[in-house]
């Protein structure tokens, strides 16, 4: 089974790279924490003319996901912050902090309530980050690969939903989600480049984490 899954994952990774960088382009790992500032003014997006239930679900689950990701990186830094891989984890965490800040702003702007599960994600995220980091840097990077792959796939689903709904009206929200999707994919690739696949029981660990991510997404959208 593993022999079938790993080539498929590598194929997905290669396809993502072609879409993001262009065929034959050179990858450059330069993680930079940039403030993301978007105003919903040019597309006329208001509370009165949007699909409010759909936007509520998107913002609520994305806020929960970025909150959980912040807690995962906090757990990893608690264990590995003083090691050689600490600066790499910190750079990825800094980007996640920017993502969470933006979704905090969107929660207020669109009057979206957070999921009631935030206290649980607070504890569970930190435990996942610290627990996998205790397996070594490879374990932490395996966690990063699993989580970021799940989040990127979820962002892609949201992009398709908004494109089908009204790509012009939701243009700026699409810009935010696409930017964050690309940064999550970058984190995924950084994890692979830092030997995630050498983690103990990598395939089993990755599958277990991604099952948890799917459950978290399902629950956070609804409660």
TrEMBL record:
GO terms (molecular function) for this protein are:
3-demethoxyubiquinol 3-hydroxylase activity; 3-demethoxyubiquinone 3-hydroxylase (NADH) activity; metal ion binding
Cross-referenced CDD domains: DMQH (cd01042)
Main role? Answer: Catalyzes the hydroxylation of 2-polyprenyl-3-methyl-6-methoxy-1,4-benzoquinol (DMQH2) during ubiquinone biosynthesis. Has also a structural role in the COQ enzyme complex, stabilizing other COQ polypeptides. Involved in lifespan determination in a ubiquinone-independent manner.
Q: What PANTHER family has UniProt attached to this entry? A: 5-DEMETHOXYUBIQUINONE HYDROXYLASE, MITOCHONDRIAL, COENZYME Q10 BIOSYNTHESIS PROTEIN 7
| Subcellular location(s) of the protein | Mitochondrion inner membrane
Q: Which domain of life is it from?
A: Eukaryota
Protein family per UniProt: Belongs to the COQ7 family.
What name is this protein filed under? Answer: 5-demethoxyubiquinone hydroxylase, mitochondrial
> What does the entry list under GO cellular component?
extrinsic component of mitochondrial inner membrane; nucleus; ubiquinone biosynthesis complex
Q: Which organism encodes this protein?
A: Gopherus evgoodei
Positions annotated to bind Fe cation 2: 96, 148, 184, 187
Q: Which InterPro entries match?
A: Ferritin-like_SF, Ubq_synth_Coq7
Question: Does the record carry ATP-binding as a key word?
Answer: no
What do we know about how this protein assembles, alone or with others? Component of a multi-subunit COQ enzyme complex, composed of at least COQ3, COQ4, COQ5, COQ6, COQ7 and COQ9. Interacts with ADCK4 and COQ6. Interacts with COQ9.
């Amino acid at each position: 089974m593993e022999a079938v899954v790993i080539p498929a994952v590598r194929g997905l990774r290669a396809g993502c790279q072609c879409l993001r960088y262009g065929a034959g382009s050179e990858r450059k790992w330069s993680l930079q924490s940039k403030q993301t500032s978007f105003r919903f003014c040019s597309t006329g997006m208001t509370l009165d003319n949007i699909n409010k239930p759909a936007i509520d679900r998107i913002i609520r689950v994305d806020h929960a996901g970025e909150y959980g990701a912040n807690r995962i990186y906090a757990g990893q830094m608690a264990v590995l912050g003083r090691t050689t891989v600490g600066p790499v984890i910190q750079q990825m965490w800094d980007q996640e902090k920017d993502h969470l800040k933006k979704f905090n702003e969107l929660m207020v702007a669109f009057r979206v309530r957070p999921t009631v599960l935030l206290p649980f994600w607070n504890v569970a995220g930190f435990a996942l980050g610290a627990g996998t980091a205790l397996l070594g840097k490879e374990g932490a990077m395996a966690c990063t690969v699993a989580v970021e792959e799940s989040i990127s796939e979820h962002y892609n689903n949201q992009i398709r939903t908004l494109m089908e709904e009204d790509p012009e009206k939701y243009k700026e929200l699409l810009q935010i989600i696409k930017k964050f999707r690309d940064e999550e994919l970058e984190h995924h690739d950084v994890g692979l480049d830092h030997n995630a696949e050498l983690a103990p029981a990598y395939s089993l660990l990755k599958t277990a984490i991604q099952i948890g991510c799917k459950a978290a997404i399902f629950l956070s959208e609804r409660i």
